[in-house]
Amino acid sequence: MLWLIGFAIVFVALMIPILAIVLDSPALKHMFESRRGSAPGEVNELSRKVSMLEDQVDDLARSLESIKEEQQFLHQLLENPERGRPSKRLPPS
Question: Is residue 87 one of the residues assigned to a domain?
Fold first, then answer.
């Protein structure tokens, strides 16, 4: 019976460092973070990416509006070419 108590003490003494290594491992930390939710660093990164995407969408909207105006101008020129041309008469001097 005494050998059983000695074995338990040695077993616990050897398991403490092994348990500390396992609990401090990156894989276990990642598992706990994924169960708890996203990490604060990930939220900040996603927020930054969303902000960048919003800026890019705004730039695309401005570019699209510019192209639309150019297309309307060209369409008007093609429909009414006399309106866009300068007059052939010289201004009076």
Answer: no
